[in-house]
Amino acid sequence: MRRVPLFFALVAALLAFAPAALADGWLPHPADATWTYLWSDSVYNTTPTKEKVTVDKDQSGPNFSLDWTTDGLGNPASAPTSAGTVWFQETNNGLDIVPPGWKSNAPPTSFPTLCASASQCANSLASTYYNVIWGSATPVLVEPLLKGLSWASTGGTPSDPVASTSEYLGVEPVTVPAFPKPVLAAKVRSDITQAGALGDPYGSGVRTIWWVYGVGPVKIVFDHAGGSSAAVTTSELQSTSLTPADPPGDLDYFPIKKGVTHTYRWTNPRYLKQPEVQQFTIDAVANGTARFSVTSVSGPIRATGAYIYTSRVDGVSNIAASTKAASLAKLPPLGPKSAPPADRRHFFTPFDLMDFGFNPILPAYPKAGDAWVGKASGRDYDVFGVTGSTKVLGVQTVKVPAGKFQALAVQSVLKQQGFPFGSGTRTSWFAPSLGLVKLVFRHADGSVSLVELLK
Q: Of these four, 67, 131, 178, 279, which has the most CB atoms within 10 Å of its CB?
């Protein structure tokens, strides 16, 4: 199947967008939203301090900012005063800090200096949101939050950088003053390292944040480095104008992990008299994007190539592919009709059958009833010339040579004008932490392609 060249990977960022669903996600920011936190530090701020966080009035598309202040909250005189702003951007990869980044008054002089020099040091941990973004400003939070997800981030100022590695640990109930009855929260643990600052033990350590869907961070615990007497910073949400929501499902139906190999068998009694067996290996992974290489094991098709997939807030999508094949099997040609006959497409691999039509292959957080359509315009239509619709049927039991799985069934009705082999009904089954395990494409010409995971 002739596919778009791999240079599409270089322009994948152009496909990014921030869906409206983000506004109701892990850090919603309606104009009237408020949060009040109480934070303390076991060594440097032993007087619990209230901070009120509000949404800045200047919001533009995916960009928004949050302001905080300690004024007017009845804090004791010994409590540190603080006022500041942090600037965010929602992307299809999650939540980032964007220029100008952050600003606030200087931290109390009793706090460790988090720069190589005390002069004009812009790094601080003297507020709740500084503890949220410390070491993880880009990105703050990666989405979709799925089981097994981990990522690397950076933070701090360019001259005094801070690095972190974060891991999503799953969902657990959490109780804070704002929610005296337990609510479900996504737990994210970060190992943070700062080197070269005057107070770098304080800038290093392990931070855990509990994020509640529909609200934002509700609890932060930062265990700073430095041994048994090291400081611990804690912040808990006291009140908010927002209402918690159940988090989306976190099963990963299209896992991206370097080195994973799958072997598939593809049959079609009309066109493939001998089964085609091919092996797919994830040989490169970066920032939620993976390259799968394909090689033929046995059968009438000798194919090699690569496919690039990305997992983002707008779902799992194929953004590039390139295959070469010599085939003894005479498969019917595909469109689009607008392409010259020599350039019309063919199915050469099981992933060609899975990708065919339009993105996404899966939504970010798929659930039964989700549905989307393929439009007669845009990049996917230019590539495939296919219209139709896709819906998530739900979890079904499927049995293939690789085993028995509870797999998510996704069904597409496809129409490629003038090409019955490129039209029909395709059902794909995806198993958690495994990916595609079965596919049945009932072509409009009456033939049926069956793909099954062998191992």
A: 131
> Encoding tokens for residue 374?
């393929």
The alpha carbon torsion through 352, 353, 357, 362 (nearest 10 deg) reads -100
Q: Which strand ranges, in their side-by-side order, compose the sheet holding 150-157?
A: 141-142, 94-104, 83-91, 63-69, 45-55, 34-41, 232-240, 216-224, 205-212, 179-193, 160-176, 150-157
Nearby residues of 86 by Cβ (< 8 Å), 6 or more positions away = 65, 66, 97, 101, 102, 129, 133
What is the DSSP code string of 282-309?
Answer: EEEEETTEEEEEEEEEESSEEEEEEEEE
The CATH fold of domain 26-240: YmcC-like fold (2.40.360)
User: Which residue is associated with the tokens 């498969």?
Assistant: 331
Tokens of 351: 């992933």
pLDDT tens column, 140-178: 999 999 999 999 999 999 889 999 999 999 999 999 999
pLDDT digits (tens, 9 = 90+) for 330-378: 899 898 888 787 777 789 999 999 999 999 999 999 999 999 999 999 9
Rounded to whole angstroms, the Cα distance separating 277 from 189 reads 41
Same fold, 6-15+251-453 and 26-240: yes
- Pair of tokens at residue 77: 């005189």
Q: Among all chains, which residue has been given the structure tokens 């409590």? A: 79
For the entire predicted model, the pTM comes to 0.91
Using CA atoms, how far apart are residues 293 and 304, in angstroms rounded to an integer?
A: 7
Tell me the C-alpha distance between 169 and 278, whole Å: 34
Longest dimension (CA), the chain: 84
The pLDDT tens digits for 375-397 are: 999 989 988 999 999 999 999 99
Q: CB–CB of 57/31 below 8 Å?
A: yes
Q: What is the pLDDT of residue 348?
A: 94
Count other C-beta atoms under 10 Å from residue 184's C-beta. Answer: 15
Structure tokens at 275: 């089964």
- CATH number attached to the domain at 6-15+251-453: 2.40.360
Where are the extended beta strands (E) located within 56-133? 63-69, 83-91, 94-104
Q: Where are the domains of the chain?
A: 6-15+251-453, 26-240
